Amino acid sequence: MDDATSKSFDHPYTVLGEDPSLVIPPAESRQRPTKVYFWILTSTVFLLSLAGLIVRENPNRAENSIPAAGTAIPESSQDNVRFLPVGEAEGVSAKSYPSTRGRLSFNWTAADFAWQRTSYHFQPEKNWMNDPDGPLFHLGWYHLFYQYNPDSAIWGNITWGHAVSRDMIHWLYLPLAMVPDHWYDIDGVWTGSATILPNGTIIVLYTGDTNEAVQVQNLAYPSNLSDPLLLDWVKYSDNPVITPPTGIETDEFRDPTTAWTGPNGTWYVLVGSRLNTTIGVALVYETLDFKNYTLLDHPLHTVDGTGMWECIDFYPISTNSSVGLDNSATGPEVKHVLKASLDNLKLDYYAIGTYDEGNVTWTPDDPEMDVGIGLQVDYGRYYASKTFYDQNKGRRILWGWVNETDADYDDLAKGWASVQTIPRVVTYDSLTGTNILQWPVEEIESLRLNSTEFEDVFVEAGSLVPLDIGNATQLDISVEFEIESTQALEESMLGETESQLECSVADNRTTLGPFGLAVLADESLSELTPIFFRLAKSNGSLKTLFCVDETRSSKATEVFKEIYGTVVPVLDGEKFTMRILVDHSIVESFAQAGRRVITSRVYPTEAIFDKAKLFLFNNATDLNVTAAIKIWQMNSADIHPFPLY
Amino acid sequence: MKISLNILLSLIFLFPLPLLSPLLPSSSTPNDNAIVSLIDQTCKRTPYEDLCISSLTSNPNRSRAAGVKELAGMVLDSVLLNATDTLAFTRLLIDRTIDPEVERPLDYCAELYIPVVKFTVPQGRDAFYRGQYKFAEYCLTDAARQADACEKMLPGSAVSPMGDRNRIFQQLCSVAVAIIDILSKDQ
């Protein structure tokens, strides 16, 4: 089983392009990293930049615009980062922000914590969850497995949790699928993927952390394929099937992908790792029987400076249709997406490129936007995403793990941590040709109750429009904005002045923004989460930023309040559109039909229950917008244990 | 040689047995009156008594009904038969229609019924026979939900192209759930 051949890798030195995304602590290139130093450094940069953004004052405040915070929320210094985030010691990505033990916790009540639980997003009844695993469709049921700690609300004792659903929305909990019970996974049954063979057989490859903390890849399969619930799983008697090859660190070798076919009945699988600590790499293994593997002498792809690649995903996408493709599909109208979760940044990156079947290599369409240096899958609190081919409806479906952004001890107090996003359909954006589109599965519409529609809402510069819709904590919102051609806009487009391409806070008023919605806002706006567009001239052209500003989302001081954002292409003739799913402490925001997505976690203390409200706002100084908005109340997905007996 | 002799003897010995069956005590099969009574008593406890009775009395296997469990099995068979029929009928309508306005909801309905026939109801039946009553009920409720979704998509004209098939199917599912409930309670 041991592929004993030692491999060395000749890697092309990739020149890193300019990272176009915003407000992210800069990646530190380092010679010989120790994780603690790295965390102190990035946390310092992050905290300082956050403090800098909040303290900014704005004198040009119109009466009805979102008032700036009276006093800057005091930010404590870097003495918070004494403690390693959970997970680090094991050699896996941190499963939490650095411990915030230095900060005082908000005095949460049980009701506050209960409110934070989502109503229609997947989360276990209690305890910790992280990466989605082995998603698949089988005999009428969608299956989701997930990294799960049955004993605590922080990472540890990792098992594969299991849930099924007929529609990927109404989930039913099943017993654990796999637990750490062999030497080769005794320290954790980690992330893995499922492959459905042409004859219907299901195989799962997953990373086991051994009794000596070595990361190995193991084979498992259902004990009874005709069981629609796939309750019982068998681990191959001769595990592990893949062990770390020479030259690869034994604790940087994990997350096997779904396999795809090569010529002559071979199958290929990727395992993520890093070379010389800084080069992210997708190692390729070849197999005929899923029991015996050979490491190819060259990786699928590497990108210098990106560090360890966790949760690699590799899949084909059709460029001329919105139909999903099986993992083995190839053809002239097929491109391949390569995605990696960067351990260093806790961010998911992807790139679109071309797969060379003959060489088993992949090349990005645009090397400046290569994996890890170009586009992110989601610009918010999002990690370890994984797709699968839904052969039921012919779609490529994307799952993503959304961790908490409150403190570890909050999670322990409330007894749970993490949710999954609503599964998204992934398609190629043929209009831009440079990115994928993500959109919540249509099955979510079955949760829609009543709707309220507002048309032609004129939101002039510096105004706020409350939307009277009743409950505002479980919503599916579609909004489109049209901007009025104004002098400022003309001047911006023609003139020389460049503005800073930065989301900034919502109460930072620039000529052409921000305008958008404020969700989970209370009447007095003491708490609010603005989601907005901000136009700015940059490099000679008008760009659109899409942003979520959490800085005033909560009065609690121990929760993290980020500003997430990215430039989003808005093509000629397009309106500015957003789709927003509000579900208690999670908000998923989609711009331009899914061209860019931001997932956000917020923990309001006031804007909860019936105090949460929804507003349209336009904080621009010289731009009027007209909005058309439709808001659905969303029902609960009533996720509960599977009713067996 | 020895083996075939044994077989021969067994055959000779057993041959007349089937002829004797009318003389054998009827094991646990009640007579017709008892069956009618059983069906009546059981169907009274379902939300659609008449539908329940007609479905069970028309079942060719009704003479084997020893108790509520067999009745439940029979209703489950009816549910599957009904769904299969409805799907076939819907496909027929699709073939015959030229109006895209009519075809679209019918396509949608067919898409809903396909997994009902292929997975949901058979799995419910399997679950039932394994004693997983709640699983069985979940499947039936889910199947009824699909029929409801189908019905909602159909044009709200005076006469629906599918007639009252969706409604009947939903009712049949309710009957099945009710009978399985009886079994659960009586356990």
UniProtKB/TrEMBL annotation, chain A:
Transmembrane region(s): 36-55
Domain Glycosyl hydrolase family 32 C-terminal: 443-632
Superkingdom to which the source organism belongs: Eukaryota
Keyword Magnesium: no
All copies of domain Glycosyl hydrolase family 32 N-terminal, residue ranges: 121-440
Cellular component terms per the entry's GO annotation: vacuolar lumen
Pathway where this protein functions: Glycan biosynthesis; sucrose metabolism
Subcellular location: Vacuole lumen
GO molecular function, one term: beta-fructofuranosidase activity
InterPro entries per UniProt: Beta-fructofuranosidase_N, ConA-like_dom_sf, Fructan_Metab_Enzymes, Glyco_hydro_32, Glyco_hydro_32_C, Glyco_hydro_32_N, Glyco_hydro_beta-prop_sf
Gene Ontology biological-process entries: carbohydrate metabolic process
Known EC number: 3.2.1.26
Swiss-Prot/TrEMBL keywords: Glycosidase, Hydrolase, Membrane, Transmembrane, Transmembrane helix, Vacuole, Zymogen
A Pfam short name: INV_N
Residue ranges of domain Beta-fructofuranosidase N-terminal in the record: 13-111
Principal location: other
The keyword Hydrolase belongs to this UniProt entry's keyword annotation: yes
Family statement: Belongs to the glycosyl hydrolase 32 family.
This protein's name: beta-fructofuranosidase
Organism: Trapa incisa
From TrEMBL, chain B:
Highest taxon listed in the record's lineage: Eukaryota
Keywords assigned: Disulfide bond, Signal
Region forming the signal peptide: 1-22
Any GO MF annotation of the entry: enzyme inhibitor activity
CDD domains in UniProt: CIF_like
Cross-referenced InterPro entries: C/VIF1, Invertase/methylesterase_inhib, PCW_Enzyme_Inhibitor, Pectinesterase_inhib_dom
Domain Pectinesterase inhibitor: 34-179
Pfam families, alphabetized: PMEI (PF04043)
PANTHER family in alphabetical order: PECTINESTERASE INHIBITOR 5-RELATED (PTHR36710:SF18), PECTINESTERASE INHIBITOR-LIKE (PTHR36710)
Family: Belongs to the PMEI family.
Name the UniProt record assigns to this protein: Pectinesterase inhibitor domain-containing protein
